[in-house]
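Practice problem 4.
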């Protein structure tokens, strides 16, 4: 089969489309014929081997699995011996192993049936980013109706889900921080207010002590600036470890968590988990019309390197995906 392969860690130049052996399912897995695969920060981190802690998980000198990708949508092609929840030909979405390929393995418990109301590209944009937004708002921030929620990085892959969930599902008053080009987009998602960071930032007097919850997906504001924008007992949630150093990649997030016991405000970090129940929740919201996956751009498999480059440099509105014929 064709797959996007990396034989070493490094920039996008390490990626190449090659012929590799088609995967076989383990007893609790299925093989999915991939229609589309999501492009998120987790793909870049594994490709680059950065921060260094990534290499302790995925392979010290080179990735143990050379095929990129985690999110997927497609059709069940082959069943493991213990799998009873799916049948050959079912249209599914979820998280797998080496999804930038014509076929990919995935644990059956990490998959769900694709709603008829969304495309395969939209389906591939949901699993990682959607679950990250849901877990940040529900589990870490414990958002309630009527609270004021500030979302930094509101127009990106996680941010577009966070704005919709906070406004429509949790009933919060959302202020979205994004660039000027994305302002109307995030308003359409449900943001009551928009801060254009090219003209204004949250360190101005208008934002002091205003927000019950701050969801920081962008990862570059100093902690004192974020704390000043919180109410006296507000909650800050830092998503992931962007901008946190070359070794652990989570320096700012770790500082936030270590300071939290000494503050009235709460400071938390989220590293999202893959949960069948959360994927089911998101699909239920899609089917109820409360959530829509937004795809900024779709790239053919041969242009996966360009997709990752755009992720890092292009400020996409929504999620990027790679597609297969």
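Answer key:
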């Amino acid at each position: 089969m064709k797959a996007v392969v990396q034989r070493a860690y490094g920039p996008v130049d390490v990626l190449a489309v090659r012929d590799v052996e088609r995967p076989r399912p383990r007893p609790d897995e299925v093989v999915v014929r991939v229609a589309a695969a999501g492009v998120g920060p987790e793909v870049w981190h594994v490709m680059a081997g950065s921060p260094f802690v990534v290499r302790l998980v995925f392979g010290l000198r080179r990735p143990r699995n050379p095929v990129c990708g985690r999110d997927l949508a497609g059709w069940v092609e082959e069943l493991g011996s213990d799998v009873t929840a799916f049948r050959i030909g079912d249209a599914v979405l979820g998280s797998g192993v080496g999804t930038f390929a014509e076929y990919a393995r995935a644990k059956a418990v990490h998959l769900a049936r694709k709603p008829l109301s969304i495309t395969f590209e939209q389906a591939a944009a949901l699993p990682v980013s959607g679950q990250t937004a849901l877990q940040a708002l529900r589990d870490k921030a414990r958002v309630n109706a009527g609270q004021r929620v500030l979302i930094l990085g509101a127009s990106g892959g996680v941010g577009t889900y966070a704005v919709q969930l906070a406004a429509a599902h949790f009933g919060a008053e959302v202020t979205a921080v994004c660039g000027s080009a994305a302002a109307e987009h995030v308003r359409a998602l449900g943001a009551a207010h928009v801060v254009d960071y090219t003209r204004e930032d949250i360190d101005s007097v208008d934002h002091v002590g205003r927000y019950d919850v701050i969801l920081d997906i962008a990862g570059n504001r100093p902690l004192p600036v974020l704390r000043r924008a919180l109410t006296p007992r507000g909650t800050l949630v830092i998503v992931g470890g962007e901008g946190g150093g070359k070794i652990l990649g989570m320096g700012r997030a770790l500082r936030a968590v270590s300071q939290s016991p000494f503050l009235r405000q709460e400071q938390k970090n989220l590293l999202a988990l893959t949960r069948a129940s959360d994927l089911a929740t998101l699909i239920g919201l899609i089917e109820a019309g409360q959530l829509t996956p937004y795809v900024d751009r779709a790239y053919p498999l041969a242009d996966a390197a360009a997709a990752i480059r755009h992720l890092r440099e292009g400020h996409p509105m929504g999620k990027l995906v790679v597609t297969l014929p």
